[in-house]
Amino acid sequence: MDIAVVTGPASLVGGEAVRVFATRFDLVVGLGDRPRRQQPPNFRSHPVDLRDLAAVTGVLRDYGSDVRLVVHTAAHPGGDRGEELPSFETAALGTVNLLEAVRQHAPDAVFALESTVEVYGDVPNALPLVETPTRWELDPGHPWHEHGVDESMGLDRADRAFPAVPVLAADLTAQDHARRLGMNVGVFRAGTVVGAEGRLGLLPTLVRDAVRGVPFTIRGHGGKQVRDVLDAADLVEMFWHFYRNPRPGAVYHAGGGRDRAGSVLEIIAEYEHLTGREVRFDYDPEPGYADVRWWLTDTGRFRRDYPLWRPTRGLTDLLAAAHRYWSGVPKVVLDRGIGAGVE
Fold first, then answer.
1. Model-level pTM greater than 0.90?
2. Does residue 224 carry a pLDDT above 60?
3. Which residues pair with 301 in a beta bridge?
4. Number of folded domains in the chain?
């Protein structure tokens, strides 16, 4: 039997991984919160706390060497949300526990860690940026201008939003298990990952507020901060390619690149053009802690190693999908803010 283990099956990326891998493995095992939506018949939920080493080890022991792939969604959504200690422990200690359980009971399994580009903190703000009427842009003479930031960006001397700190610990721990202990671990530092049913982050918040008819809040940088977006399904396909031909210890950036990027102001304009709906917004001049003005993700390293992978959906398609989803959510649920969608 071939088994895939997915942590955070109730999250955006975890839920997409369950959906995709249920068609490619005999069994998909979920660790963590039980998903609200109906799951495939070959999905089995184990609502264990990743901080509980005995519980995590027990699950991996039960399935043993039949586990072929582990997808660990350690990354937190963006934003300085002031997480308390349990969330720190879930990302940092939970990753250590999961790695050790896999090493002991499924040592040949491939382990894909979803990290985040937020591990770099505010380092990108030191890049030579140019302000235009609608966006911040990297100096055209800089080597990262066309394709975005690659994996050589440094991690030191950075301010970070609190949720990024335990993910950095998880990121480095996973690399260490590959380099020192020979595990088939790959680290995927994801940028802005989106999906139609996502409820956290720029796109879903913008669309949900627009559908509700309430003002969307732009935080700092004149609304000119730039992000690229990647469909959660495309990120899961990166995990799949890595599983088919793992490169232990590899660190990859995961994002949409320049063709799937825009500033907050540009994304608002695109949504208005797409829907004919005016977006009301408020402006808070104070940006989020360690928020960066410009980020484009260079996926060149991954595409060189796995040339058959390409992002499939563009920014307009992703906005349209989010609009269709949130337009179909009952108003009473919309007004609760977090009563629908997935993280």
1. yes
2. yes
3. none
4. 1
